[in-house]
């Protein structure tokens, strides 16, 4: 008998990545659909999946904020996103109805955390964080292998962190908070502050010490709140490899010996790590979501 086929969508603010597959070593027909209007984008998404063989389930990891309360009338919607045209957009129920397939829905970062737990850098580790530093900043947390979910899903990208305006006069770009973590440290903040996109800033640029400082402040707060057993940092900005050693050192400095465990004091290189699935964490996470649903 053939292995069951699953669908996966990594729904992002710039592009929707769609794929089908039976597992991480068999991901087929990957396609990228630009995120334009919901009508146009979803039309292309539907056409992609309609051309595939029958799926057992479809997993969707979406940019947010999203509604994850199963009893809510707007379950599976993108809710208060600043992205024009995408407020109150039905994703999960629309796809379930139109494609006639069970849909598992979660945030993009929860999906990535689930994928990393299943196949990547958090295998065998029940409590972990996946944080993306890209156009925005988002975080997904697993506790005992399950995504943390409460009133809404966690919004770690908008943590309020100390901002020394003498060292960094930049006001931050978050439309809701100005200088929250995302406002100070996501890719667009680097572009605004330094006048060049993050990928054009050389490894010895002063931007990176400041970036590592902000990310370390956030990580320390998350370590003290959730006590994750591993932290995975992904997203475009984390391609700047100099950030990893700087963030690890700054986390140790800020904790100042208070959390006395070898993972932090001795082997922090294995504690704060890049995604094991690389840039496929999001799409494989969506596939893992579909497989959990089935
Ligand atoms: P998105 O968050 O839109 O899904 P990415 O995770 O690729 O997309 O993040 C895009 C951001 O990452 C942009 O702000 C870009 O400037 C930055 N970026 C991309 N490549 C690099 C790189 N090599 N070094 C540092 N920053 C990068
Ligand atoms: Zn914010």
Structure, explained:
The chain has about 290 residues and is an alpha/beta fold. It folds into 2 domains: about 5-110 and about 280-294, ATPase, nucleotide binding domain (Nucleotidyltransferase, domain 5), CATH 3.30.420.40; about 125-275, 2-Layer Sandwich (Nucleotidyltransferase, domain 5). It has helices spanning about 40-50, 90-100, 110-120, 180-185, 185-195, 205-225, 245-255, 260-265, 280-294, and strands at about 5-10, 15-25, 25-35, 55-60, 75-80, 90, 105, 130-135, 135-145, 145, 230-235, 270-275. It has a 5-stranded mixed β-sheet with strand order 3-2-1-4-7, sandwiched between helices. Strands 10-9-8-11-12 form a 5-stranded mixed β-sheet, sandwiched between helices. A two-stranded antiparallel sheet has the order 5-6. A hairpin with a 3-residue loop joins strand 1 and strand 2 (about 15-25). Helix 3 crosses helix 9 and helix 6 (about 205-225) packs across helix 7 (about 245-255). The chain starts with 5 loop residues before the first strand and ends with a helix. The mean pLDDT is about 95. It binds adenosine-5'-diphosphate and zinc ion. The site of adenosine-5'-diphosphate has 16 residues, from helix 5.
Describe what is shown at a glance.
The chain is of the alpha/beta class. It contains nine helices and twelve strands. The mean pLDDT is 96.
Give a quick set of tags describing it:
294 residues, binds adenosine-5'-diphosphate, alpha/beta, Nucleotidyltransferase, domain 5, 5-stranded mixed sheet, binds zinc ion, 21% strand, 2 domains
């Amino acid at each position: 008998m053939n292995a069951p086929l699953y669908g996966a969508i990594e729904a992002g603010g710039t592009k929707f990545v769609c794929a089908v597959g039976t597992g991480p070593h068999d991901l087929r027909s990957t396609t990228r659909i630009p995120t334009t209007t919901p009508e146009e984008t979803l039309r292309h998404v539907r056409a992609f999946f309609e051309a595939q063989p029958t799926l057992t389930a479809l997993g969707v990891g979406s940019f947010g904020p999203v509604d994850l309360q199963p009893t809510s009338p707007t379950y599976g919607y993108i809710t208060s996103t600043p992205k024009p045209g995408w407020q109150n957009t039905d994703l999960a129920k629309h796809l379930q109805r139109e494609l006639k397939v069970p849909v598992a829905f979660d945030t993009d970062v929860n999906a990535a955390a689930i994928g990393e737990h299943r196949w990547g850098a958090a295998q065998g580790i029940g409590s972990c964080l996946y944080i993306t530093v890209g156009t925005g900043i988002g975080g997904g947390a697993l506790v005992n292998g399950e995504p943390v979910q409460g009133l809404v899903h966690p919004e770690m990208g908008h943590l309020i962190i100390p901002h020394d305006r003498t060292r960094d006069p930049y006001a931050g770009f978050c439309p809701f908070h100005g200088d929250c973590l995302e406002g100070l440290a996501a890719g667009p903040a680097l572009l605004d502050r330094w006048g060049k996109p993050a990928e054009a800033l050389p490894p010895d640029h002063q931007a990176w010490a400041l970036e590592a400082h902000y990310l370390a402040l956030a990580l320390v707060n998350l370590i003290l709140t959730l006590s994750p057993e591993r932290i995975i940092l992904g997203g475009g900005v984390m391609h700047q490899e100099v950030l990893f050693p700087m963030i690890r050192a700054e986390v140790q400095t800020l904790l100042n010996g208070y959390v006395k465990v070898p993972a932090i004091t001795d082997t922090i290189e294995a504690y704060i790590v890049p995604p094991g699935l690389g840039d496929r964490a999001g799409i494989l996470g969506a596939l893992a979501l579909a497989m959990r649903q089935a």
